């Protein structure tokens, strides 16, 4: 069999790998959006394929989890002729539908915007739609009709000689490692895909489970050269900041947070502080329509959460029903919050302060010395979050310049990725004498190189850093 790396090769986004068996059966593991891919608006329509393969010849898609850099191109795959199934866990299917519909709505807004612009721009958008670079709601609905869900830790026989097992990865609700057992010519080989690996003792999510012994392993390396700085628990870290920003002084705390996963972790932690540590019920505004929808999905899938969260739900009936919680619905309500003068907490997307409703809250409060902006995750270059972390005195939001008077804080206890220590813990579950090759993916090259050195010290035989389109015989 052969394994080809088509995305997340020496970069973090666009996860996609192609596994081809000896009989020609082709399996696509993840089909994610490449956030670094530049769209060529002028490429000819004759360049029809969005993918470097014939989508109609793919036999099966296996999805590790719902994040758009792993799922985002699935509708395009169906547009180009794929007719098979997408295997994933039940929560992954629900979250993927939510995220893909949001992506389709974004594409629709781009198309509608183009209609009011130049004819050239309109033709460009039409070209992208016809080539498959954009998809709409119907494309998502057609894709979701073919999702087939599997439970964790239950071996699924796809066909004779091909078995798949989903194993909890802990990174997101429903996130999975994938374990393949493949028998060809009387010989059985095993192959593991880590997906994105979560953290131990994370709010809500279960701990990542080890993979059974593998012959070959594909492991993510997002934080392969980084160790999380904060050593306190999420509850202790958040409690300290709330006391300093909303209790000891009458201030407001703004938490930019991704709508899926991160928002739910923060709400649950706040609820625990109120119920278990008698924290005052400060008014909490959650401003993200997708955050509200994904919270409903988390509520529906309590059985997929960690034992601590399930026990909290059993005792208090609702994990996210924070006292004094208000879900904001409209942009008018978003703007009205600036007139609320009591201490409060505002949770809004996006987490990097790159688009989304949080930009309005930043614009309204960045000049307020009684406001604290708490960054709880990674912020990429070019985002407002990154600028604030670098200590800029002035920022530009919504085409206006603002002086930064608010306090800027950062904690990494809510980061959903395992750090170098967690990744090595995952690797150490394997046997160095029987694991033939480790392939590192989903990380920048600098991160991969340092992580490779750490793995080499453990005595594993061969660690490979694939480039995009590299193919390996297994």
Shape from CA axes?
globular
Strand content: 15-25%
Determine the structural class based on helices, strands and strand pairing: alpha/beta
> Which strand order does the major sheet show?
6-5-4-3-2-1-22
Strands, total number: 22
Would you mind describing this structure in some detail?
The chain is of the alpha/beta class and 474 residues long. Helices cover 32% and strands 21% of the residues. The strands form 4 sheets. The protein has a 7-stranded mixed sheet. Strands 7-8-9-10-11-20-21 form a 7-stranded mixed sheet, covered by helices on one side. β1 and β2 form a beta hairpin. α3 packs antiparallel against α4 (119-131) and α6 (234-247) packs across α7. The protein is globular. The mean pLDDT is 91.
SSE blueprint and pairings:
Blueprint: E1 2-7, E2 16-20, E3 26-29, E4 60-62, H1 68-71, H2 74-79, E5 86-88, H3 90-115, H4 119-131, H5 137-144, E6 147-149, E7 156-159, E8 162-168, E9 176-184, E10 187-193, E11 216-220, H6 234-247, E12 252-256, H7 262-277, E13 283-287, H8 289-300, H9 307-316, E14 325-327, H10 331-336, E15 344-348, H11 358-365, E16 371-375, H12 384-389, E17 394-397, E18 400-403, E19 407-410, H13 420-428, E20 437-441, H14 445-456, E21 463-464, E22 471-473
Parallel strand pairs: 3-4, 4-5, 5-6, 10-11, 11-20, 12-15, 12-16, 13-14, 13-15, 16-19, 20-21
Antiparallel strand pairs: 1-2, 1-22, 2-3, 7-8, 8-9, 9-10, 17-18
Helix pairs in contact: 3-4, 3-5, 3-8, 6-7
């Amino acid at each position: 069999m052969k394994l080809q790396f088509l995305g997340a090769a020496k970069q973090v986004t666009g996860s996609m790998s192609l596994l081809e068996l000896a009989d020609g059966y082709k399996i696509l593991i993840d089909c994610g959006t490449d956030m670094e891919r530049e769209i060529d608006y002028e490429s000819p329509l004759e360049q029809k394929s969005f993918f470097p393969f014939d989508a109609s010849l793919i036999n099966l898609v296996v999805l590790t989890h719902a994040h758009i850099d792993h799922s985002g191109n699935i509708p395009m795959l169906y547009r180009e002729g794929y007719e098979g199934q997408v295997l994933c866990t039940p929560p992954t299917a629900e979250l993927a539908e939510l995220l893909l519909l949001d992506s389709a709505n974004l594409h629709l807004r781009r198309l509608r915007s183009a209609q009011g612009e130049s004819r050239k721009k309109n033709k460009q958008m039409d070209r992208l739609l016809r080539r498959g670079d954009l998809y709409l709601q119907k494309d998502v609905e057609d894709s979701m009709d073919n999702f087939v869900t599997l439970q964790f830790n239950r071996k699924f026989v796809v066909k004779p000689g091909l078995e798949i097992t989903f194993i909890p990865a802990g990174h997101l609700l429903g996130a999975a490692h994938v374990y393949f057992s493949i028998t060809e010519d009387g010989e059985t080989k095993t192959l593991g895909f880590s997906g994105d690996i979560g953290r131990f003792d994370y709010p809500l999510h279960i701990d990542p489970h080890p993979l059974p012994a593998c012959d070959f392993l594909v492991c993510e390396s997002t934080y392969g050269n980084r160790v999380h700085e904060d050593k306190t628990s999420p509850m202790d870290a958040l409690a300290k900041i709330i006391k300093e920003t909303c209790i000891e002084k009458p201030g407001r705390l703004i938490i930019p947070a991704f709508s899926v996963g991160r928002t739910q972790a923060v709400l649950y932690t706040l609820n625990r502080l109120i119920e278990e540590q008698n924290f005052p019920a400060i008014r909490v505004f959650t401003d993200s329509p997708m955050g509200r929808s994904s919270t409903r999905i988390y509520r529906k899938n309590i059985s997929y959460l960690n034992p601590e969260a399930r026990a909290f739900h059993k005792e208090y009936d609702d994990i996210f029903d924070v006292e004094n919680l208000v879900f904001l619905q409209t942009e008018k309500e978003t703007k009205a919050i600036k007139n609320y003068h009591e201490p409060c907490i505002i949770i809004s997307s996006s987490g990097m302060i790159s688009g989304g409703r949080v930009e309005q809250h930043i614009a309204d409060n960045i000049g307020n010395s009684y406001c604290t902006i708490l960054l709880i995750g990674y912020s990429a270059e070019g985002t407002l979050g990154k600028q604030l972390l670098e200590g800029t005195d002035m920022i530009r939001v919504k085409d206006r310049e603002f002086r930064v008077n608010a306090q800027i804080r950062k904690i990494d206890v809510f980061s959903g990725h395992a750090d170098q220590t967690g990744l090595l813990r995952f690797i150490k579950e394997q046997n160095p004498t029987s694991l033939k090759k480790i392939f590192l993916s989903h990380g920048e090259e600098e991160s991969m190189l340092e992580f490779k050195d750490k793995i080499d010290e453990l005595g594993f035989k061969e660690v490979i850093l694939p480039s995009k389109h590299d193919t390996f015989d297994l």
